[in-house]
Specification:
By secondary structure, the chain is an alpha/beta fold. The protein is built from 12 helices and 9 strands. It has a 7-stranded mixed β-sheet with strand order 4-3-2-5-6-9-7, with helices on both faces. Strands 1-8 form a two-stranded antiparallel sheet. It is elongated and about 65 Å long. It starts with 8 loop residues before the first helix and ends with a helix.
Length: 276
């Protein structure tokens, strides 16, 4: 059997009596036109290794395999084992890992080589997984990820936008982030209450060091934890006006107006104060 010989996804789900589980944040993407477009946007192909989280019945998995890539699929829900094992047998390039993606070692999954992450992420773990990939010890070659539209907007938001916050700063300090595709709720089974969007992130050449990234996370947590306050108030515990002056910023400014470079200067100033 080859990929083209596999039954349509709806038939495969019906045959196994499978439905999406709300507790896992599952919404199936069964439209192969959409999954193939996501695979194209991911820019993967022969020789590439892709880590996919939450493949479910394997719609995006099939599209990724069609590109010639090798796929490591991490699935927490063991109900999908038979469907994904059928896909693995048909392609010869799919490895199924039954595990929680929040706890797996991606470097081990990629066997020490570079790997791209392409996923229709379960809604309830999308943001924690993104933070793990952006700030953890393992750095992906690229990330092409589907989120709720609201979360996607927060990742790509510019300073001054209502969606701009801590997630945007961390994402854009570590990656070039771009919203590349909108996906309406009706494209999913069952349809969620909100639309979705695909974000593509590629690592920055000047990605902050782990120490600098830790400092950035502390600064942004404080600044956006009290986003309606001026920086001199929200950052008081971390150095207040002296810290802000060292970063060349206005102490009366609010966090949502400070660009990524400004937050990196705050992180550097905080590290310098600690080292003094």
């Amino acid at each position: 059997m080859e990929l083209a010989d596999l039954p349509p996804l709806r038939e495969a789900l019906a045959e196994h009596g499978l439905m999406a589980r709300k507790s896992f944040g599952q919404h199936f993407l069964l439209d192969l036109n959409i999954t193939r477009k996501i695979a194209r946007l991911a820019q993967v192909g022969d020789g590439d290794t892709v880590i996919e989280v939450g493949p479910g019945p394997g719609g995006l998995t099939r599209a990724l395999l069609e590109t010639g890539a090798t796929v490591v699929a991490v699935e927490k829900d063991e109900r999908f084992r038979p469907l994904l094992e059928d896909v693995a047998a048909a392609s010869g390039r799919l490895t199924l890992v039954l595990a929680d993606a929040l706890t797996v070692d991606e470097a081990e999954l990629a066997q020490g080589g570079p790997a791209h992450v392409v996923s229709n992420l379960p809604y309830n773990v999308g943001t924690p997984l993104l933070i793990k990939w952006l700030t953890g010890p393992w750095s992906p070659a690229s990330l092409t990820l589907m989120f709720q539209k609201e979360v996607a907007d927060r990742i790509a938001a510019a300073p001054g936008a209502s969606a701009y916050g801590r997630l945007a700063v961390i994402a854009q300090a570590t990656s070039h982030a771009q919203l590349v595709m909108d996906v309406p709720a009706r494209a999913f089974t069952p349809p969620p209450k909100v639309d979705s969007a695909v974000v593509r992130l590629t690592p920055r050449a000047d990605r902050p060091s782990p120490q600098r990234l830790d400092a950035l996370q502390k600064i942004t947590a404080a600044a956006f934890g009290q986003r309606r306050k001026m920086l001199r108030a929200s950052l008081k515990a971390l150095g207040g006006e002296a810290l802000i002056a060292a970063a060349g910023l206005d102490p009366q400014a609010r966090a949502e107006t400070i660009d990524v470079a400004g937050f990196l200067r705050l992180a550097d100033a905080w590290l310098a104060r600690r080292a003094a």
